[in-house]
Automatic annotation (TrEMBL):
<dbReference type="InterPro" id="IPR037171">
    <property type="entry name" value="NagB/RpiA_transferase-like"/>
</dbReference>
<keyword id="KW-0413">Isomerase</keyword>
<dbReference type="InterPro" id="IPR042529">
    <property type="entry name" value="IF_2B-like_C"/>
</dbReference>
<dbReference type="InterPro" id="IPR000649">
    <property type="entry name" value="IF-2B-related"/>
</dbReference>
<comment type="similarity">
    <text>Belongs to the eIF-2B alpha/beta/delta subunits family.</text>
</comment>
<dbReference type="InterPro" id="IPR011559">
    <property type="entry name" value="Initiation_fac_2B_a/b/d"/>
</dbReference>
<dbReference type="GO" id="GO:0019509">
    <property type="term" value="P:L-methionine salvage from methylthioadenosine"/>
</dbReference>
<protein>
    <submittedName>
        <fullName>S-methyl-5-thioribose-1-phosphate isomerase</fullName>
        <ecNumber>5.3.1.23</ecNumber>
    </submittedName>
</protein>
<dbReference type="Pfam" id="PF01008">
    <property type="entry name" value="IF-2B"/>
</dbReference>
<dbReference type="InterPro" id="IPR027363">
    <property type="entry name" value="M1Pi_N"/>
</dbReference>
<dbReference type="GO" id="GO:0046523">
    <property type="term" value="F:S-methyl-5-thioribose-1-phosphate isomerase activity"/>
</dbReference>
């Protein structure tokens, strides 16, 4: 077991300092493309390089917001020495805001940072934003523990859970709460091509949380569901619309459809609801470079002279969602 089981969670990809750090050289971002095989850092000396790291998947999911928050510290430091500091801050903020269009956490962090800067003079911006990053991280962990405690009620002793991609801190805390209560939890992790977040990040974290973890190819999930080998499916959510429809990693929709067919409950972790978006149909889906579908872990996995197509996310309608695991309880979509 790693120290993930300790209160501090000082290993893994959970603690703030293991997501991103900042010092005089810039923002250092843990490279999730190679974790846990290698623990390496990508150093970003300025805002454009932070934006590039986010776009290039150096970090993803909740890590993008943390990287963007530190990127705004760099933006504030640079803009504070500019002839037109507030205009320059807005320009740099746009660079970060436009990195990942589907998950709106980066946009939210950037807007919050701008609101903080509006209350201070330029020379005070960096200090105020660094403090806000620490505060935000404490609030995030408290929120995800609330989600986890409600989610753990769905995990009786001997439960068999299927998950997809990297459902962030909430799922690991959820499993940890169950195993700490003495319950055994078996988890099937989809490998989640092309970056293999499921077989690397999720499997590593859930193993350390005390679960018995089995990695399966993405194409095997339907077999498990059809054979009655899964009691429930739990995924993360990159965005939840007002009607309870879910936008998440591509492949989530297929899991929800198959779960519905075989009567397996389908849940998504839901830190917040986007009240400004009525349904998931209003959420833009990021189409990444098709070349990414032709490679895996730095090696080409497709024959030459073929095209690739890679929508990074998909939309799951609310009628396929059994429940959303929120900070205030497990709720049906119509109860949000």
């Amino acid at each position: 077991m790693s120290a993930i089981l300790d209160a501090g969670w000082d290993t893994g990809v959970f603690l703030l300092d293991n997501i991103a750090r900042i010092d005089a050289q810039g923002v250092h971002i843990l490279d999730r493309r190679v974790y846990p095989f290698d623990k390496t850092w990508v150093t970003c000396p300025d805002v454009p390089s932070v934006a590039t790291a986010i776009i290039d998947m150096v970090t993803q999911s909740g890590g993008t917001a943390t990287a963007a928050a530190y990127g705004m510290v760099l933006a504030a430091d640079h803009a504070g020495r500019h002839a037109q500091p507030r205009d320059e801050l807005q320009r740099l903020a746009r660079i970060l805001r436009e990195t990942r269009p589907t998950n709106d956490s980066v946009k939210t962090v950037v807007e919050n940072s701008l609101e903080i800067c509006a209350r201070w003079e330029p020379e005070q911006w960096p200090g105020a934003l660094v403090e806000s990053v620490s505060t935000r991280e404490k609030q995030r962990l408290a929120l995800t523990w609330q989600i986890a405690e409600h989610g753990a009620t769905l995990l009786p002793d001997g439960v068999r859970l299927l998950t997809h991609c990297w459902a962030e801190t909430g799922l690991t805390q959820m499993v940890l709460a169950a195993t700490r209560a003495g319950r055994t939890v078996q988890v099937f992790c989809d490998e989640t091509r092309p970056y293999l977040q499921g077989s690397r990040l999720t499997a590593d974290a859930l193993r350390d949380a005390g679960a018995a973890v089995t990695v399966v190819p993405d194409v095997a999930a339907g077999y498990l569901l059809s054979e009655g080998a899964v009691d429930l499916v739990v995924t993360g959510s990159d965005r939840v619309a007002a009607d309870g429809s879910v936008v998440n990693k591509a492949g989530t929709l297929a899991l929800a459809l198959t779960s519905k067919r075989y009567g397996v409950p389908f849940y998504s972790l839901c830190p917040r609801v986007d009240r400004d978006t009525p349904t998931a149909a209003g959420v833009p889906i990021e189409l990444r470079d098709g070349e990414e579908a032709l490679h895996c872990l730095g090696r080409r996995t497709a024959t030459e002279n073929v095209a690739g197509f890679y929508p990074a996310f998909d939309r799951t309608p609310a009628d396929l969602v059994t429940g959303l695991i929120t900070p205030t309880g497990v709720k049906a979509p119509h109860e949000l």
